[in-house]
Amino acid sequence: MRDQVQSADAFEQFVLLAVAELETAGETPVHSYHVTQTMKAHLADIDRQPFGGVERQKVISVLGQLADKGLLSNEKTESPTGKGRPGYELAGDPDEVLEALSTTDEFDSYIETVRSS
Question: Which among 68, 70, 69, 67 is positioned nearest to 87, based on CA atoms?
Fold first, then answer.
């Protein structure tokens, strides 16, 4: 899993980090809306250009790609209105993701935030 996380592009890694944070907080399976909001809340915590923004449509696409790569598991959940929608969880342990992402400096302060919560 470590190699897959490290070979993901920076936006995919940011999505994984947001899912890891939500999973650590016991809020999985997560939906695209929560991942997007979490990412926007932590834009200041990453040491790089902010990807031209965090758009929900891009997050939805990346969540699907990460599930296809086996980094996330996908399960249907039901919205309050009774519609089925995809919910995501990390396929591995959140600590593995944090460890793999700590090899770059880009996410250091975000990783520290997740580890200390």
Answer: 67
Domains of the chain, each with CATH number or no CATH: 2-116 (1.10.10.10)
Instruction: Enter the pTM of the model.
Output: 0.90
pLDDT digits (tens, 9 = 90+) for 64-73: 999 999 999 9
Cβ atoms < 10 Å from Cβ of 86: 17
Phi, psi of 46, deg, nearest 5? -110, 145
Report how far residue 25's alpha carbon sits from residue 113's, in angstroms, rounded to the nearest whole number: 12
Is residue 14 within 8 A of residue 35, CB to CB? The reply is no
CB 18 within 8 A of CB 35: yes
**In the predicted structure, residue 50 carries a pLDDT above the cut 80:** no
